[in-house]
């Protein structure tokens, strides 16, 4: 084959499919072949829906052959869906044994929008159980490996979606971001991932981790592809009470404009508290280089201070487990999912099932959340964490008075070896240091590739105010263009995976 | 009032109580591990108490929406077959569950 | 367990002051559930009124039913409460198989209505003011069927079967402040309060208020304190009180039981008790191992409710006349004695008569139909008057047909029978059964002539001046027309024919 369809961007594939230069079925098949070849090693997917994917692609081809306009700018392009969104035609597990084999009777709004847009869903991707984790090692179905170094983690919880992109198994993916689960894996795999404003993308059908923090979002290998996907999945949904009933920010236009490479007049806030100590030297080097490039693009760098961000991690690890302890109560063996028939009473069966069906990280957080919400501790823990949340929002508000976007490294370190932190919860939690404040405030942020440190990808985090996605994508696209012009696309340097025949 | 929590010590018995409340039949080995880990985690998250926040309103919802309602109109739901399709056990159109020991609701 | 020692009620009230607290749960009669678009109809096949939201499926999210909020606000206003300008739902966390999410979404410390009162009419015509602590919104649970036990109750059952049709039906919980100073009237006050509340809710049109179907449920908290004491005693909470009469009986029983415990030097246990309709007694539920800690926190999946002053005032404008005010007005309008009014109220006929009058019938006729013939029919069927399958509008139509002479009283009863038998509207029954009074002279004259020809001797008598003999001819005509002739007109025709 002269061109490798799996190496193309989603925008390129869409152009070829819509001009009928290649068929959507060919594109889907090329990606299914790639999955068959490399996923044994990467383990990005929990479920591959080859038949459904080809059938969906064939429908796109039929429509185009009949002269119908494509359903969306991404019609016919394949996508990997994080296994935390319900799908009527595929099992949905959220990475947990307690949901093994569950076939939801309904589609998540995100899944329904992808289908309506003619996007080919290749399958469901691996994740930390119920999106709790930063390495995908907490999946009940085994870890995902980072295509940059199979001995390392791809980040988490959306490690499967990020790895699928970096391994060229899919040009598009969907993730969810509760404390960094889109951005941290993007940083670890040299891909792009955006966490939209809370309420920007419907959570209906997104199996909840922490309801007040969860947000679905787009992942891809380029900023433009991410923006194209963003516009497909975002927008008001009456089924989600927290959905924002306002127009979706014009992120595609912003990404195209940003690619022109001019950021003059734009103020980029450099958060004083988000670099330096605790950040790996290679990460800091990449960050300083990114700041230099932003300045070169015409942006004005302003130092801003967000003094309460340092309490973000503590507040997050109280609010999240509290909501988790309640959200995961429904997995009780009564109506669906696993049932362990140990004990005579419903109470005993519930406890035995939850013990067998949940992994250690999930249990840890349920117990922690139950503690934080207990009457004697409520004020000191949950109540106080909610006040910290207010202070962090105020920090953001003050910073956005001075700057249009804020930047920081996405993560303190690059991808770490599998097994390194799995038994040290606190060390694992530190991964989310820079990403958590955005979730607590409900604002938008994304990660774009920002070079390599010791051969491993580093991410630049760009943060924007609520519904400020347009300026965020503009800066991301400008930075991406400038960095690529100097250094070439990062993913050109991802090691070639052994292809099994 | 200072919100500073008392030194975070969490006993094995306390973890066992929390596990019971959360319907987790944890093993003895897990109790030991969790008690140790939770103490470390609580020690770290207790930092939220360092912030003087007596006059700070709490945030429960990041985006300040209010009055989001649905009209009182029927929407198609699931059939009985769909509802019971994933049930671990069913009988006579109902979900079958082991005997309930708790309080009669 | 030994049977409790009961103390004579007169002695109870001589030595103790009862304190009541009543918690009433009302199922709203909205089309759909509190947080999803499933129907709320009572009695459907199990698990046919469910969706991902009310089954608590992973990923499903709640959205508040606007009509339920409006009902809650109207109830709050009718109870003279303050409507909270801002409030959130909370999650009440506890595991129970009839609750699909294992938390109940409920307004916890931010109820939509607080601090009101209800003026309750007592049997002797006096009024007792019950202070309302709060009214808040929440969702109902599913229903369990306990299989294998002797009694159908939970104890001793082998397993349970769950139906989630009821899960998520909107509930309003109305909680009183402690009701003190009732003395010997405590049981009556409890019953009268629930009765007044039921009438109020019915007038508001927000609920079916059927205690037998569980759309109105009452939990009665009762405690005793020695005469002269200022500190409340330990209370029990009695559940499963499914009729107005049971409210009264349950309170009375608890007073006599607790007095027995206290006078024997014992202590009342704070517990949930179960009322048994058949024996009129209460029995303890299973005691909980540890005090419940529901770990409430604001529901992140729902946003706050902040009713604007305009909205609240608009809803205030929709409040109906209060039931007791309306009764006073009706009593005057219809010229009823107190006794007559009470009989009508007790028979559940007042609203029906009023609606019949509203549909155009004279008050006397409307009253007569409902308290005599229709009451007989209801008794024969063993149902409440209101549950007869006939509407006030249909009764009004029958009355109108009699007034216009199209139906005789006898025929009118047959029309009502037809409506009750499901044969349709009164006019349809008249047509289908051919019941209209025959007042067409041509048809009648033929019958009159035929009867006169058959009995020439009687015709002769009439002609001879014995006008009363005409009765025999009229009777024959009525027989021939199967009673559908207008007897008065037949008589006129007979005289006319003979004397012509």
UniProtKB/TrEMBL annotation, chain A:
Entries under SUPFAM superfamilies matching the protein: Amidase signature (AS) enzymes
PROSITE patterns registered for this protein in UniProt: AMIDASES (PS00571)
Keyword set, alphabetical order: ATP-binding, Ligase, Nucleotide-binding, Protein biosynthesis
Family listed: Belongs to the amidase family. GatA subfamily.
Reaction equation(s) it catalyzes: L-glutamyl-tRNA(Gln) + L-glutamine + ATP + H2O = L-glutaminyl-tRNA(Gln) + L-glutamate + ADP + phosphate + H(+)
Membrane-crossing segments per the record: none
Active site location: 82, 157, 181
InterPro entries assigned to the protein according to its UniProt record, in alphabetical order: Amidase, Amidase_CS, Amidase_dom, AS_sf, GatA
Protein's name in the database: Glutamyl-tRNA(Gln) amidotransferase subunit A
Pfam families reported in the protein's UniProt record: Amidase (PF01425)
Gene behind the chain: gatA
Quaternary state and interactors: Heterotrimer of A, B and C subunits.
Catalytic activity, EC: 6.3.5.7
Enzyme class: ligase
UniProt function note: Allows the formation of correctly charged Gln-tRNA(Gln) through the transamidation of misacylated Glu-tRNA(Gln) in organisms which lack glutaminyl-tRNA synthetase. The reaction takes place in the presence of glutamine and ATP through an activated gamma-phospho-Glu-tRNA(Gln).
Presence of keyword ATP-binding: yes
Source species, domain of life: Bacteria
Residues of the Amidase domain: 26-470
PANTHER family with a match to the protein in the record: GLUTAMYL-TRNA(GLN) AMIDOTRANSFERASE SUBUNIT A (PTHR11895:SF151), TRANSAMIDASE (PTHR11895)
Automatic annotation (TrEMBL), chain B:
EC number: 6.3.5.-
UniProt keywords, alphabetically: ATP-binding, Ligase, Nucleotide-binding, Protein biosynthesis
Coiled coil start-end: none
InterPro entries in the record: Asp/Glu-ADT_sf_sub_c, GatC
Reaction catalyzed: L-aspartyl-tRNA(Asn) + L-glutamine + ATP + H2O = L-asparaginyl-tRNA(Asn) + L-glutamate + ADP + phosphate + 2 H(+); L-glutamyl-tRNA(Gln) + L-glutamine + ATP + H2O = L-glutaminyl-tRNA(Gln) + L-glutamate + ADP + phosphate + H(+)
The protein's enzyme class: ligase
Tree of life domain: Bacteria
Family matches, as HAMAP family: GatC (MF_00122)
Assembly mode: Heterotrimer of A, B and C subunits.
Biological function: Allows the formation of correctly charged Asn-tRNA(Asn) or Gln-tRNA(Gln) through the transamidation of misacylated Asp-tRNA(Asn) or Glu-tRNA(Gln) in organisms which lack either or both of asparaginyl-tRNA or glutaminyl-tRNA synthetases. The reaction takes place in the presence of glutamine and ATP through an activated phospho-Asp-tRNA(Asn) or phospho-Glu-tRNA(Gln).
Family: Belongs to the GatC family.
Protein's name according to its UniProt entry: Aspartyl/glutamyl-tRNA(Asn/Gln) amidotransferase subunit C
Annotated source species: Pseudonocardia zijingensis
UniProtKB/TrEMBL annotation, chain C:
Key words of the record: ATP-binding, Ligase, Nucleotide-binding, Protein biosynthesis
Assigned EC number: 6.3.5.-
InterPro entries: Asn/Gln-tRNA_amidoTrfase_suB/E, Asn/Gln-tRNA_Trfase_suB/E_cat, Asn/Gln_amidotransferase, Asn/Gln_tRNA_amidoTrase-B-like, GatB, GatB_Yqey_C_2, Gln-tRNA_amidoTrfase_suB_CS, Gln_synth/guanido_kin_cat_dom
UniProt keyword annotation of Membrane present: no
SMART domains from the UniProt entry: GatB_Yqey (SM00845)
Family indicated by similarity: Belongs to the GatB/GatE family. GatB subfamily.
Name by which UniProt lists this protein: Aspartyl/glutamyl-tRNA(Asn/Gln) amidotransferase subunit B
Organism the protein comes from: Pseudonocardia zijingensis
Organism ancestry: Bacteria, Bacillati, Actinomycetota, Actinomycetes, Pseudonocardiales
Gene that encodes the chain: gatB
């Amino acid at each position: 084959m002269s061109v490798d369809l799996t190496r193309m961007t989603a925008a390129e594939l869409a152009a070829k499919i819509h001009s009928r230069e290649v068929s959507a079925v060919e594109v889907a098949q090329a990606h299914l072949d790639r999955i068959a070849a490399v996923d044994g090693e990467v383990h990005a997917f929990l479920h591959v829906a080859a038949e459904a994917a080809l059938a969906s692609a064939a429908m796109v081809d039929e429509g185009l052959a009949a002269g119908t306009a494509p359903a969306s700018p991404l019609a016919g392009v394949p996508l990997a869906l994080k296994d935390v969104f319900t799908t009527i035609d595929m099992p949905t597990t959220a990475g947990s044994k307690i949901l093994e084999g569950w076939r939801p009777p309904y589609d998540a709004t995100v899944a329904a929008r992808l289908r309506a847009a003619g996007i080919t869903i290749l399958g469901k991707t691996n994740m930390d159980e119920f999106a709790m984790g930063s390495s995908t090692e907490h999946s009940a179905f085994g870890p995902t490996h980072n295509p940059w170094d199979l001995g390392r983690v791809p980040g988490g919880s959306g490690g499967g979606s990020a790895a699928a992109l970096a391994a060229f198994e899919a040009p598009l993916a969907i993730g969810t971001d509760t404390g960094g689960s889109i951005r941290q894996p993007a940083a670890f795999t040299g891909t792009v991932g955006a966490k939209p404003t809370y309420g920007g993308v419907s959570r209906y059908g997104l199996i909840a981790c922490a309801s007040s923090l969860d947000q679905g979002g787009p992942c891809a290998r380029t900023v433009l592809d991410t923006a194209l996907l963003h516009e497909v999945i975002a927008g008001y949904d009456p089924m989600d009470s927290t959905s924002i009933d306002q127009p979706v920010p014009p992120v595609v236009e912003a990404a195209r404009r940003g690619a022109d490479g001019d950021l003059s007049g734009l103020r980029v806030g450099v958060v004083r508290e988000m670099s330096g100590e605790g950040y790996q030297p290679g990460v800091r080097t990449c960050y300083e280089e990114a700041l230099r490039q932003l300045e070169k693009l015409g942006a004005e760098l302003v130092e801003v201070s967000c003094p309460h961000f340092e309490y973000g991690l503590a507040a997050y690890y109280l609010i999240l487990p509290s909501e988790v302890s309640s959200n995961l109560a429904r997995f009780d063996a009564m109506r669906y999912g696993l049932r362990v028939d140990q004990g005579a009473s419903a109470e005993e069966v519930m406890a035995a099932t939850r013990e067998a069906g949940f992994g250690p990280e999930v249990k840890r957080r349920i117990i922690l959340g139950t503690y934080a919400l207990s009457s004697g501790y409520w004020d000191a823990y949950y109540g106080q964490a909610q006040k910290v949340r207010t202070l962090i929002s105020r920090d953001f508000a003050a910073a956005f008075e001075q700057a249009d976007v804020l930047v920081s490294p996405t993560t303190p370190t690059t991808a770490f070896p599998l097994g390194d932190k799995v038994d040290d919860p606190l060390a694992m939690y530190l991964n989310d240091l820079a990403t958590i404040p955005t979730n607590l405030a409900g604002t938008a942020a994304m990660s774009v590739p920002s070079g390599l440190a010791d051969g491993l990808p580093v991410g630049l985090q760009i943060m924007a105010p609520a519904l400020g996605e347009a300026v965020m994508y503009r800066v991301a696209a400008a930075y991406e263009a400038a960095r690529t012009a100097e250094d070439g696309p990062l993913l050109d340097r991802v090691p070639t995976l052994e292809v099994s025949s | 009032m200072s919100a500073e929590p008392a030194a975070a010590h969490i006993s094995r018995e306390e973890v066992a109580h929390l596990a019971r409340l959360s319907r987790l039949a944890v093993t003895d080995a897990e109790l030991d591990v969790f008690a140790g880990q939770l103490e470390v985690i609580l020690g770290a998250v207790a930092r939220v108490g360092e912030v003087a926040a007596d006059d700070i309103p709490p945030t429960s919802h990041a985006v300040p929406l209010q009055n989001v309602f649905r009209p009182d109109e029927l929407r198609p739901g699931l059939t009985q077959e769909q509802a019971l399709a994933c049930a671990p056990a069913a009988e006579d159109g109902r979900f079958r569950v082991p005997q309930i020991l708790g309080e009669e609701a | 367990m030994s049977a409790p020692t009961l103390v004579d009620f007169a002695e109870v009230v001589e030595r103790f002051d009862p304190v009541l607290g009543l918690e009433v749960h009302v199922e709203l009669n909205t089309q759909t559930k509190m947080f999803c678009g499933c129907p709320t109809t009572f009695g459907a096949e199990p698990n046919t009124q469910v969706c991902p939201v009310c089954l608590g499926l992973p990923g499903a999210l709640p959205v508040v039913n606007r009509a339920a909020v409006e009902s809650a606000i109207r109830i709050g206003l009718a109870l003279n409460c303050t409507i909270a300008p801002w409030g959130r739902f909370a999650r009440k966390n506890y595991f129970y198989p009839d609750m699909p999410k294992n938390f109940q979404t409920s307004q916890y410390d931010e109820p939509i209505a607080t601090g009101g009162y209800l003026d309750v009419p007592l049997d002797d015509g006096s009024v007792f003011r019950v202070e309302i602590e709060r009214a808040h919104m929440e969702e109902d649970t599913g229903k369990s069927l306990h299989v294998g036990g002797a009694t159908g109750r939970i104890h001793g059952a082998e397993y349970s079967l769950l139906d989630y049709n009821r899960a998520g039906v909107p509930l309003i919980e109305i909680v009183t402040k402690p009701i003190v100073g009732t003395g010997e009237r405590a049981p009556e006050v409890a019953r009268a309060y629930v009765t007044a509340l039921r009438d109020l809710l019915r007038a508001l049109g927000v609920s079916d208020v059927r205690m037998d179907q569980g759309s109105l449920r009452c939990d009665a908290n009762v405690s005793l304190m020695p005469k002269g004491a200022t500190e409340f005693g330990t209370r029990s909470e009695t559940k499963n009180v499914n009729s107005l009469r049971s409210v009264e009986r349950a309170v009375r029983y608890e007073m006599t039981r607790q007095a027995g415990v206290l006078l024997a030097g014992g202590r009342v246990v704070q517990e949930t008790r179960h009322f048994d309709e058949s024996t009129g007694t209460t029995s303890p539920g299973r005691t909980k191992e540890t005090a419940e800690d529901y770990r409430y926190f604001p529901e992140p999946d729902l946003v706050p409710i902040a009713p604007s002053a305009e909205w609240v005032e608009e809803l205030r404008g929709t409040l109906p006349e209060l039931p007791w005010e309306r009764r006073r007005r009706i009593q005057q309008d219809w010229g009823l004695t107190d006794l007559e009014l009470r009989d009508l109220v007790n028979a559940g006929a007042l609203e029906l008569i009023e609606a019949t009058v509203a549909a155009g019938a004279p008050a006397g006729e409307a009253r007569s139909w409902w308290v005599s013939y229709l009451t007989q029919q209801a008794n024969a069927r063993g149902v409440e008057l209101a549950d007869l399958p006939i509407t006030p509008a249909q009764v009004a139509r029958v009355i109108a047909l009699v007034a216009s002479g199209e139906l005789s009283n006898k025929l009118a009863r047959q029309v009502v029978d037809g409506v009750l038998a499901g044969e349709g509207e009164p006019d349809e029954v008249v047509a289908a059964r051919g019941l209209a009074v025959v007042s067409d002279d041509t048809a009648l004259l033929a019958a009159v002539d035929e009867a006169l020809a058959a009995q020439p001797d009687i015709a002769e008598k009439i002609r001879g001046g014995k006008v009363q003999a005409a009765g025999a001819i009229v009777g024959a005509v009525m027989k021939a027309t199967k009673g559908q002739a207008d007897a008065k007109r037949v008589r006129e025709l007979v005289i006319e024919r003979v004397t012509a």
